[in-house]
Design brief:
Shape: globular
Helix content: under 10%
Distance between the termini: 10 Å
Structural class: mainly beta
Number of strands: 26
Strand content: over 45%
Number of helices: 0
Oligomer: single chain
């Protein structure tokens, strides 16, 4: 359910979707995890949202999001053992709550550093925010102010994606209100949380398509250091949008049209990117939704659509009778592509996972038709 009062961690480990040869059928629930493959965790007194997940090298699972304390939302971070039980060595019995600005704080994205420290990005009081934790869940006081960075630059900002460069610099991508119109926005921080003034203009980059509302939903850094951000642009309907930047924050004019791609997959309906992965060959895989169905699309390294994938570079997959939205994409070591999100089944939103072969066709070895809902 979308309005669940608990963290609900299901997708990724509770399905036997990756490297689990001891299961009889890919796509079946992993009954060794939690209770019959499902874990729910109550945090605050109100609604709790899990927004992103990362798996540590030791197999422990981190979920970041936000939790209502009765008056507003705070960043929430939970760590589980690999069997789904709470890791009591982390924070307060596996849970960490962080208040940033005594207003609504929304953790939306998560990444683990090579040294085991944990970065959670999002927004606080409608401005970009990043918090860094030590591996035990305590705030890292060497980062920002007491482990927190709060950036009140624009009237309204939303941080949706976080990435780490190889040099330890941190990129947050999202949307920012520029003179009452939203634009793609990126901020780059040094490893200590200070703004990297060598990036864009004093550490900030904004890109406006010229329509009413634009925004980045996800970010990925290529092996050459270039930065790919995908999301939406809107002139009434939401269209798929993707931008590639050079390492200094300038537009990469070798990509798409002067660094920018805008696509409408289904006329007179909404298309939006939600998640990016980059294949070893440099091709870019983006998951999201189009006209209320799962969308998976692949691009060549220059931004042209990979016509060897699906139909002219994209695949739209209907799951339930209502709205389906893909939220997170994963490329398996064998090249198969997994897209997870939700599907409206009757009056409820259920977890949904679809697995595709590397050419975009549905993988019928995954629960017989390539689709699973729970």
């Amino acid at each position: 359910m979308r309005k669940n009062r608990q963290f609900l961690f299901l997708v990724i480990l509770s399905f036997a979707i990756a490297n689990k040869p001891f299961y009889s059928q890919d796509g079946s629930l992993d009954l060794s995890f939690g209770t019959n493959g499902i874990v729910t965790t109550s945090i605050g007194s109100g609604i709790d949202y899990g927004k992103d997940v990362a798996i540590q090298s030791d197999g422990k699972i981190l979920v970041a999001g936000y939790s209502n304390n009765g008056s507003d939302f705070d960043f929430a971070l939970v760590r589980y053992n690999d069997d789904g039980s709470l890791d009591n060595s982390f924070g307060n019995n596996g849970i960490v709550i962080t208040d940033i600005e005594s207003r609504n704080d929304n953790g939306r994205c998560l990444i683990i550093q090579n040294d085991g420290k944990i970065l959670v990005g999002g927004d606080s009081n409608l401005d970009f925010a990043v918090v860094r934790y030590n591996s035990d869940g305590s705030l890292d006081n060497s980062f920002g102010s007491g482990g927190k960075v709060y950036f009140p630059k624009f009237r309204v900002d939303f941080g949706h994606g976080i990435e780490l460069q190889s040099d330890g610099k941190i990129i947050i991508a999202g949307a920012a209100d520029i003179s009452n119109y939203f634009a793609f926005a990126l901020v780059r921080y040094n490893s200590d949380g200070t703004l990297d003034t060598s990036f864009g203009t004093n550490g900030i980059v904004t890109t406006f398509f010229g329509f009413f509302s634009d925004g980045g939903r996800c970010v990925k850094i290529q092996s050459d250091g270039k930065i790919v951000v995908a999301g939406y642009t809107s002139d009434g309907w939401f269209n798929f949008a993707m931008i590639r930047y050079n390492t200094d924050g300038s537009l990469d004019t070798s990509f798409g049209t002067n660094g920018i791609i805008e696509l409408n997959f289904e006329s007179f309906d909404d298309d939006e990117a939600q998640s990016i992965e980059i294949q070893p060959d440099g091709k870019i895989v983006v998951g999201g939704y189009s006209a209320g169905d799962f969308l998976i699309t692949r691009f060549n390294a220059d931004g042209s659509q990979d016509i060897s994938f699906g139909t002219n570079g994209f695949v739209i997959t209907s799951i339930g009778s209502g709205t389906d939205e893909g939220k997170s994409v994963l490329i398996q070591p064998d090249g198969k592509i997994v897209l997870a999100g939700f599907s409206r089944i009757g009056s409820n939103d259920d977890f949904a996972v679809v697995r595709y072969n590397s050419d975009g066709s549905l993988d019928n070895s995954f629960d017989s038709d390539g689709k699973v809902t729970t």
